[in-house]
Amino acid sequence: MVAKQAWNIVQNPNSLVAKLMKAIYFPHSSLFEAQLGYNPSFAWHSMWHARHILSLGCRWRIGSGDNIRVMHDPWLRESANRWVPSPQPTGVYQLSVRDLLHENFKAWNIAKVRNLFSRDAAKRILETPLVSSVRSDKHHVAGNWNGIWKAQAPHKARHLLWRLCRGCLPTRCRLLERRVECNPNCPVCDVETEDELHIFFRCAVARDSWCAAGLSSVLHNVVYQQSNAMDRIFAVCSNESSDTVGRVAINESSDTVGRVAMLLWSIWHNRIDKSNSVSGTTEAVLVRWEKPALGWVKCNVDVAFLSGSGRTSVGVCVRDNSGQFMAGMTQWQQTVISPVEGEA
Fold first, then answer.
1. Does residue 150 surpass a pLDDT of 90?
2. 161-178: per-residue pLDDT in tens?
3. Which phi and psi (to 5°) does residue 137 adopt?
4. Burial code of 7-41, b = ≥16 C-beta within 10 A, e = fewer?
5. pLDDT recorded at residue 250
6. CB-based contacts of 67: which residues, under 8 Å, 6+ apart?
């Protein structure tokens, strides 16, 4: 909620609250560049820390380009990386986006961009669209998040879309990135490495599910062939009706976004069931100690040997029927015997 209030200040700079906060805390900079200052109020202290949340999901929409710094602000089109990569030639670090446009009309100065930047950076800059109707530089949230939450689907399905776009789903690739040891292959088809694109769009079982749900036209639409799952979901939310993004496969509603949400939820939970069944078959059987009958004691023995040492170790533990320790012993034997012989 605090981040939302900070966003309101960014989006409505002419409001009374925005003017007051700017005059007190950041008169010569933007909210994102402001310093915390000395003895800040609780409200400003909270909003200042909430800027980090906003910076993760917003970028500049290019108007005149005067207020957007080429190397220091997020303004490129890509959702994954909105900054111009470093390093670049020294001269570009002081430029604004306006310096990369033609003087008389709103279009990229292609020759200048290619001369100033590396090939990859220039390609990404020239792929960033310039909308003539946008006349002033303004922050906006990257991605169609409203389209996700407006999908005509149960909350569990919308929440799955949100987790998918935020990169929160524990796919095998994601687990390996977090240094969790696991088999990288998809637990459903066991053919390819499991990431978000594979489990929801490329896996053979998932593709059959899209067809069975009557959404094969969405799956194969050339408009929705982005290189990551988040951009695909945002594209569907922007171009399809909210019903289609949320519709259940058996529901003949017109809501495409809702249908997609429920389909992806079903695919994900099928994957979870398959993963649990696979792990259940390979899980080792746990052997627990059982106490003896009343009036009896139990003696547990274990034997091990170290190869090359010429010695065998023996351990003995005696407990009563309540599990209380009664006696124990450890011993080294100079002869090497097998564990079975030693325990006998």
1. no
2. 989 988 889 999 989 988
3. -70, 135
4. bebbeeeeeeebeebbeebbeeeebbebeeeeeee
5. 36
6. 30, 60, 96, 137
